[in-house]
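Today's session is about reading a structure prediction critically. Students often jump straight to the picture, but the first step is always the sequence itself: look for stretches that repeat, for charged clusters, for runs of hydrophobic residues. Only then move on to the predicted structure, which in these notes is written as discrete structure tokens rather than atom positions. Here is the chain we will use throughout the hour.
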Amino acid sequence: MREASPGRASPGAAATGALPGAAAGAAGVGRLRRRDSAGSLRSSAGAGPSGAGECLGRLALARLRFVPILFLVLGIAALTNACGAGDGRAVLTVYSPHGRDMLEAFEARFEALHPDVDVQWIDMGSQEVLDRLRSEKANPQADVWWGAPSTMFETAAAEGLLEAYTPSWADALPADAKDDQGYWFGTYVTPEVIAFNSEAVTGDAVPRDWDDVLDPRWRGQVLIRDPLASGTMRTIFGMIIYRSLRETGSVDAGMDWLRRLDAQTKEYVLNPTLLYQKLARREGLVTLWDMPDIEHLKARTGLPIDYVIPESGTPLVVDAIAVVAGARHPELARQFVEFVGGTEGVILAAREHFRLPARTDIPADSLPEGMRRARERIVPEPLDWALLQEKTSEWMRFWDENIRGRGGT
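Below is the predicted structure for this chain, in token form.
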């Protein structure tokens, strides 16, 4: 799962040192722009000086960088939905943490199949998507939520934020990768891993399991993506606490583990792009993250970053997709869900973006060789996902109020 705070750039952006939103082009004022990094704008071809371009002109787009960010975040989505694409196409709005590269690839392919649709997306962390859907419940701005641990989708469904829709590929999913009431369906299975600077950390020094990250040699060398906004980190922290609960009947040992990790941590990093950059520059040497993003970095950027799959077990996060309740274009949203989880979309995600399919009917030889090898090494961590859904927010509040920044004291 790719995330950013307040938005998220793709792993590829780290190769050039670009920060989220830095790739936004200098397109003319009259052109419609797509959104990423929680409302920052990137150019979109094909929109002329009328329609949405004219609407944006009424907001003095040339001076938007001086508008308070909250207005920009909430206003742009409503404006572009109300004004349309400006070229006659229907706007399909997707909230997702999957990163610029993957989102652009799926945007291009879906638009090629549906020339009358303009896919627009806002790229942000999983928790940020959920928080935004809550804030927009009375006036939904998104059509599709694509990407986050399934526990977050369970929460959203319980809060009335999702519309039930069963795609044609649902029968190819195992029971634990779909909602029995049809509110969400799994797209990928994401293993969490230990990542490190592969030039500075070699041989026997490489941490092979979660507890190895607590070794004194890594004190002040651990970088952690800020867990409050990150579905990936909330899952890893939840796993640590649940292990404690399962083995001892109490969360105390898990909280102590997180306190020891805090003592090791040099920085809680704002977003994944900064995390990759700092790791590559040796501002820290070790982190905890997800396998697809690190595979993407290895394949596309040349950054000295590698990973190991923890030997004792790792969470296999079901990454899901859903139609947003009250979507402005519900039929287009359903078509997008069909495409993402369909055979073409799943193979595109696997081959180009290193996503392990949740579907069980995808042939192994459709996957890159490295992913096939990794899948053989994975030891699934047994987790009570329903309990994690119920308790993670409470656990994270306790961590934030009592552990963050205090582990070394």
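Discussion point for the tutorial: The chain has 13 helices and 13 strands.
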